[in-house]
Amino acid sequence: MRRYEKYSKKDARKIVKYQNLLAMLKYTVRQQGKTFNDIDEIKILKDEILAIKQV
Questions:
Q1: Domain assignments of the chain as residue spans, ordered by start
Q2: pTM
């Protein structure tokens, strides 16, 4: 289990949730034979994770 102790509990849960969503999305994209650059949601999730970590 990933723990992010330097972030608030709320932010840590968001980071883990978004990372899980990103992993599932990347898996699905690979199964469909597409590239990650084709999917806007991947960039959105990565940006959200970075935004939370920078707070």
A1: 9-54
A2: 0.85
